[in-house]
Amino acid sequence: MAPQQDQQQQQQQQFALLPKIINGGIAGIIGVSCVFPLDLVKTRLQNQQVGPNGEKMYKNMFDCFRKTYRAEGYFGMYRGSGVNILLITPEKAIKLTANDYFRHKLTTKDGQLPMTSQMIAGGLAGAFQIIVTTPMELLKIQMQDAGRVAAQAKEAGKAVEKISATKLASQLLKEKGIFGLYKGIGATGLRDVTFSIVYFPLFATLNKFGPRRNDGSGEAVFWVSFLSGLAAGSFAALFVNPFDVVKTRLQAIKKADGEKEFKGIMDCITKTMKYEGPTAFFKGGLCRMIVIAPLFGIAQTVYFLGVAEGLLGVKKSA
Q1: Cα–Cα–Cα angle for 152, 154, 159, rounded to 5 degrees
Q2: What is the CATH architecture of 17-155+162-312?
Q3: Is the pTM value of this prediction over 0.85?
C-alpha cells in the first residue's frame, strides 16, 4: 500500500495547478495586448452585412483598419480591450490548464495518450472555458463594433449613444439577469469546443518535432513551441471561422439600420447563406488567422517556458 500511495502522490505532484493558471493568465494578457487591433477589425468585418445594392462599409481587412484608424485614432483600435484583458486571464488559464489536466488524467499507465483522448481533452477544455469566454466576448464585441454602427448612423443623420462595458453589463444584468451575459453561449460553445478539439492535438503533434531542451525535461526548445502554436492556431482558426461568424453576429446587440436580426444559430446560418452566400462564413478569416496565430504562439511559449515557475521559485513539472 505504501509504494502505491507514494506513486499516487508523485503523480499528483507532477500536475502543479497554480503555475499553470498563472502562466495561462500571463500568456493571455501579452497575446491580447499584441493582437487586439486585428481582432477589432475581424469583428467589424464579420458583423458587416451586404446592403441591398451590394454596398459595404469595408472592402477588406486593410480598408477596415485604415478607416477605423482614421476615424477613431490609435486608442479607437483598442475599443473593448479593457474587458478582454480583465477576463482573458481566467479564460486562458481555464483553457490551457483544463487541457493539461484532462491530458494528465487520460494518459494511460504506460504513458501513452491516444489521439482520441487528446481530442476529448481539448474538447473538454473548450467546454469549460465558455463560462468566462461568453460574457467576455459579448461585451468585447459590443465595444469593438460600436464604431462601425456609429459611423453608419452618422451617415444616415442619426446619433448613437456611447456605451461602456460596465454600463452594458449592468443593463443586461438588470433586464435579463445573469443569463443576459450569456447571449450566444451555444454558438460560443460550438466554436470553442471545435477549436480546442482541433488545436490542442495538432499543437501537441507538431511540438514533438524539432530539437529538445538540454535540461533533461524532454520538452521542445523555445522556437519549436512558438512555431507549433502559430501553425496549429492558424489552421484551427480558419477551420472554425464559420462558427465564429455566427457567434459574432448573434452576440451583436446593436445593429446598423437595415441589418438583419437573428433568432438563433440555425436562423443565422440560413439567413447568412441566403443573402450573402457561403463566402460570408469566411469573413474575417485571414484576419482571425493573423490574430490567433501569434496569440497562441505567445501563449504556448510563455506556458512552456514556465514563467510562473520562475516567479514562484518552483521546479517546472513535466
Answers
A1: 110
A2: Alpha/alpha barrel (1.50)
A3: no
